[in-house]
Amino acid sequence: MSQFAVIIPAAGQSSRFGGAEKKPFVTLDGRPVWLRSAETFWSRDDVSKVYIVVAPADRDDFRARFGHHLAFTNAELVEGGSERFESVANALARVPESVPLVAVHDAVRPLVTPALINAVVQSAAEHGAAMLAVPVADTLKQVEPTTNRITGTVPRAGVWQAQTPQVFRRDWLAEAYAARGRLTVPITDDAQLIEALGHAVVVVPGSPLNFKITTRDDLELADAVLKARAARRREDQPAARPFDDEGQW
Ligand SMILES: Nc1ccn([C@@H]2O[C@H](COP(=O)(O)OP(=O)(O)OP(=O)(O)O)[C@@H](O)[C@H]2O)c(=O)n1
Ligand SMILES: C[C@](O)(CO)[C@H](O)COP(=O)(O)O
């Protein structure tokens, strides 16, 4: 598997999440959300470095609360920007040219699995650019925001919901970010910039369980998934063998 750097943007304002605690820093089944996302990467032999992007206002608090988690890892803190793509750009500037691939993974997608990461990194190594996504399952409606009235139904054939990781050749991503000023539409994911360069981005089937924590309900869902996974692991363990009369197995 190709070596790759990982950018974990965690510098957003969590406005849809609400509350005092930003969503990457809340505890999810005993561990911070951002840590669950980052450790799935930094435990891998094929990861060169993990760049954790944190808002300047959160930096000191992050170091005080979570700095010990970064010890003995290949993680580095990077300053975030006001937009997600600015946060990614700040980290991308730190990735050496010698690193062939860069994965960008939302800090608030803590349920990503090694199998999903393997699949999307393998595809990016073959095609230059790949991302996880799931086909839209619900009917999509266009809604007028001031009246909440439906103004149309969006054809969903061929429509997929983007996830992360999104993985790219480092040179393509650097070129795309250098050219991002030419885009006049909101930039909500990194693949959009690669598409604008004219490179094909390959979609790799993700999982509905690799969802982004956006609202409080998502946190509750993520907690339930983790508890269900833990219960399944306990069930899959061989039953402890009883000792015989002589205390022998
Ligand atoms: N300026 C930003 C905006 C977002 N992010 C990160 O990008 C990921 C996906 O963004 P999103 O879910 O939109 O997070 P927020 O921007 O915090 O959410 P909201 O739009 O509700 O404020 C999150 O891990 C978020 O921390 C970031 O690093 N820098
Ligand atoms: C990158 C992303 O998670 C792909 O679905 C999404 O675009 C992030 O958007 P957000 O508004 O920054 O959450």
TrEMBL record:
InterPro entries: IspD, IspD/TarI, IspD/TarI_cytidylyltransf_bact, Nucleotide-diphossugar_trans. The record marks 156, 212 as: Positions MEP for the nucleophilic attack. It comes from Gemmata algarum. Signal peptide: none annotated. SUPFAM superfamilies: Nucleotide-diphospho-sugar transferases. It catalyses: 2-C-methyl-D-erythritol 4-phosphate + CTP + H(+) = 4-CDP-2-C-methyl-D-erythritol + diphosphate. The record marks 16, 23 as: Transition state stabilizer. Pathway: Isoprenoid biosynthesis; isopentenyl diphosphate biosynthesis via DXP pathway; isopentenyl diphosphate from 1-deoxy-D-xylulose 5-phosphate: step 2/6. Catalyzes the formation of 4-diphosphocytidyl-2-C-methyl-D-erythritol from CTP and 2-C-methyl-D-erythritol 4-phosphate (MEP). This is 2-C-methyl-D-erythritol 4-phosphate cytidylyltransferase. The keyword Nucleotidyltransferase applies. Its EC number is 2.7.7.60. Keywords: Isoprene biosynthesis, Nucleotidyltransferase, Transferase. Belongs to the IspD/TarI cytidylyltransferase family. IspD subfamily. Pfam families: IspD. GO terms for molecular function: 2-C-methyl-D-erythritol 4-phosphate cytidylyltransferase activity.
